[in-house]
Amino acid sequence: RQEVYRELRKKPSVTKDGVHVDLLMNAGLAVDLPQLTEAGAAGIGLFRTELQFMVASTFPRAEAQERLYRDVLDAARGKPVTFRTIDIGGDKVLPYFKDVVQEENPALGWRAIRLTLDRPGLLRTQIRALLKACGGRELKLMLPMVTELGEIAQAREILDREVRHLSRFAHHLPTSLKLGAMLEVPSLLFQLDELMKAVDFVSVGSNDLFQFVMAVDRGNTQLSDRFDTLSTPFLRALKQIADAGVRNNTPVTLCGELAGKPISAMALIGLGYRSISMSPASIGPVKAMLTELPLAELQAFFADNLMAPSQKLPMRALLQAFADDR
Ligand code: PEP
Ligand code: MG
């Protein structure tokens, strides 16, 4: 198998009928970087910057942040990298961050963009480190757990202010700056066109989106087999996101665990996703699926089945049968 995946690395990342799909990897620490070439990823679709904070015993200093981001970009050698601002709070606790209070529902609590907008010093330091590290290169910055569009506007204000500050001091600025939002909270599903217009790109965090759409704790093993990530309502939501991206000319990626399983990656591509980001070990198996996938047939399958009012078999079984037949 490993041999097969190694061979596949040299092949273009296209479906059997020639449609290109970007297979990106998720990362979070410097040790992940060699995987970029080993796995043959097209870039880093999600860099989880909070990991540096989680393995530290105190807040990483601005210089240490900048150094890591620079190392990531150097290792990527021109391949695109999407940095996510720190996604802490919830289940990602920093023992040294004393402001965090005990919460009844941490997944719904003071976390991610909510926390960093309330402690803008944290966000400002991180954004400044990113802007400096990306001098002369592209910066793609992504906000986690966005619930309202106002949060994007607030973050953009901080970003703009940092850009002005650095240019005043004649710093080498990024050649291009893209601001994106993660789509993880269902409120955004009901303002998709506005969302797509408010950002340069969207990345679906399917782990959290599934948790909130189904009202099921992503870490609760008692419930882990109960609801299916390939169930019709969830796939309909994912399709609406992909469609809204096309309609508004806004690039859409998906970077949750869903992207890393060949059967669900197949579904995503059938629903219109042309960029997915996964753990490095999944790139080989997903690419093996991709190169064998007759996409036009899968699109016809979804046209027949996704909106059909009743089905004898669950969607996962139908998709499995589609895959087995081919
Ligand atoms: C997600 O929620 O799908 C995601 C990619 O972010 P994380 O798993 O880090 O919450
Ligand atoms: Mg998430």
TrEMBL record:
Transmembrane segments: none annotated. This is phosphoenolpyruvate--protein phosphotransferase. It is found in: Cytoplasm. It comes from Mesorhizobium robiniae. Belongs to the PEP-utilizing enzyme family.
